[in-house]
Amino acid sequence: xxxxxxxxxxxxxxxxxxxxxxxxxxxxxxxxxxxxxxxxxxxxxxxxxxxxxxxxxxxxxxxxxxxxxxxxxxxxxxxxxxxxxxxxxxxxxxxxxxxxxxxxxxxxxxxxxxxxxxxxxxxxxxxxxxxxxxxxxxxxxxxxxxxxxxxxxxxxxxxxxxxxxxxxxxxxxxxxxxxxxxxxxxxxxxxxxxxxxxxxxxxxxxxxxxxxxxxxxxxxxxxxxxxxxxxxxxxxxxxxxxxxxxxxxxxxxxxxxxxxxxxxxxxxxxxxxxxxxxxxxxxxxxxxxxxxxxxxxxxxxxxx
Amino acid sequence: xxxxxxxxxxxxxxxxxxxxxxxxxxxxxxxxxxxxxxxxxxxxxxxxxxxxxxxxxxxxxxxxxxxxxxxxxxxxxxxxxxxxxxxxxxxxxxxxxxxxxxxxxxxxxxxxxxxxxxxxxxxxxxxxxxxxxxxxxxxxxxxxxxxxxxxxxxxxxxxxxxxxxxxxxxxxxxx
Lengths: 304, 175
Fold this sequence. Notes:
The complex is a heterodimer. Chain A is α+β, with helices and mostly antiparallel strands. Chain A is built from eleven helices and four strands; from the N terminus they run H-H-E-H-E-H-H-E-H-E-H-H-H-H-H. A four-stranded antiparallel β-sheet of chain A has the order 2-3-1-4. Chain A is elongated. Chain B has six helices and seven strands. In chain B, strand 6 and strand 7 (167-168) form a beta hairpin. Chain B is globular, with a radius of gyration of 17 Å. The chains are: A alpha+beta, B alpha/beta.
């Protein structure tokens, strides 16, 4: 019998088993889907936060706040000096009016506060936009040093340190989540193996007959392994769809994007992690089925 | 004889194979060369009569179309050509045993082993089943029947080996 014919038999027998005993098969699929869903939601949050940090890094800038009494000549001189530093993409001048407009756009609920004051309290600034990549770190330090030396400068702000810390936390979350994920998957593997063991046990008479008429161990186990693979893959697919449904529901509940919803759930789970979730489910299902079906060796009655 | 257990002493040779030295990996191959009929029929409940018979050929790697053709012929041989598509629970005890016999002979084995094949059947059906075994034997297959039914043994008028407390008695003489 060719490998293809074997596979066709395994698939048709597994499908037949689903039709005849959907209960244990659905239970195994649902258990896998539930665990993979938790993993997929974590992956979704991680990928969104990582993506956002990456975008912030692409838009890395140093804000050089100018003193109110800074002379235009000195400011222009500073601007030219900063623009010449390697790693600087461009330098934008933000005057006090533009700073006020941006403040009102960013904090609409506080838009009236500056109007209560006699004068615009916000300083003019130079926004130094950096090129993405490692070169920016060195450039940021040079900019901060160069700017602080100028009498036209009041304050320099640079968010790289914050982004680096966030990156570090994300790294820990990835490793910690990965390690925790392995432990959880192993535990769930045992649970699913238990559920599949029930399915194998329910067919012990059939397995015994298969062995008595000369079926090889591969022939007996094949349908169970295929069923485990399909259950795991189906569980993974369900988890991915449920994660997307949760993301959309969260957006609807939050009344659209913005804030934490955007940060954690702004974009759908990318293709690569989605495929990884489905593949993990399939491998978990297959492994669990393999452990479960090993018990089938004992199903044999005595005669003659 | 099916090599469910390995002999602790002596030798058992079936179809030229010494079961005391037969490795586990060769057991499926050994069993495929035999036909077996059980007291409790041992039919797969979720498969139809035709599928149960064809399963042995499937295990042996026979192409699908050939499986169906030979399974049909085997079921016709035991008079069940009208019950091909039904599952065992719909069949009577006698019909189930006839399906089991069809399954045992479908592979044209040199040796057919029947373990108490009439144990769950009424006397008339038992005679009918034994008649089928005679037909199988007439086609060249050696048939070994294990039974406690001395009347049946007397009616069959065939070579008889008595087994008492695990030991063979002289041929033809009850211990």
